[in-house]
Design brief:
By secondary structure, the chain is an all-alpha fold. The chain has helices at 14-21, 27-32, 36-51, 57-70, 74-86, 91-99, 109-124, 129-138, 141-163. α1 packs parallel to α3 (36-51), α3 packs across α9 and α7 runs antiparallel to α8. The longest helix has 23 residues, at 141-163.
Length: 171
């Protein structure tokens, strides 16, 4: 059960209300409605990363799944397993992104490099020189920056979900 009540969506600032109206009625958004300007900024950044970014949607979802797994965020994995499937990731690769090591033969060289980069950022605070250089073979500077921001965003999201004990939406 959530640690504070979900918003009834009444009396929130118009800017935040407009941003929330773009999204489905999920517990994460009902909780964020309690957050004022901080939530507005969070939603805008999330929208830019998810919908206006340049990363391939498959790569983006692998990063999100891996970050959610490493952060032990059940809510994140519950939502993004479906989203990953919707962008064409097979169930086998979804499971591997959550459970397997980055050098699993199930992954392409790019996928392995992205997952290793994600692992090191989440677990060590930054990617090693070797891992950074490996991903640089595949990614432009803009993609490297977007990847790093995406990882950081989903670490933050996972911590938010866990701190407030978010209920899964299908319960």
């Amino acid at each position: 059960m959530a640690r504070i009540p979900y918003s009834n969506m009444q009396g929130i600032k118009p800017e935040l209300s407009a941003e929330l109206a773009k999204r489905p009625e999920l517990n994460i958004y009902r909780m964020l409605a309690n957050g004022g300007n901080a939530s507005l900024g969070y939603l805008q950044l999330g929208g830019a990363l998810r919908f206006d970014g340049i990363l391939d949607p498959v790569v983006r979802e692998l990063i999100i799944l891996r970050t959610g797994s490493l952060c032990k965020s059940e809510y994140e994995l519950d939502h993004h397993t479906k989203i990953a499937s919707d962008v064409g990731i097979s169930d086998d690769i979804i499971t591997a992104a959550i459970d397997d090591e980055p050098d699993s033969p199930k992954f392409s060289k790019l996928e392995s490099a992205v997952l290793r980069f994600t692992d090191e950022n989440v677990l060590n605070g930054k990617a090693s020189e070797n891992t950074f250089n490996e991903l640089s073979i595949f990614f432009s500077p803009e993609e490297l920056i977007e990847t790093t921001l995406l990882i950081g965003f989903y670490i933050m999201t996972s911590r938010f979900l866990q701190t407030f004990d978010m209920d899964l939406d299908n319960q």
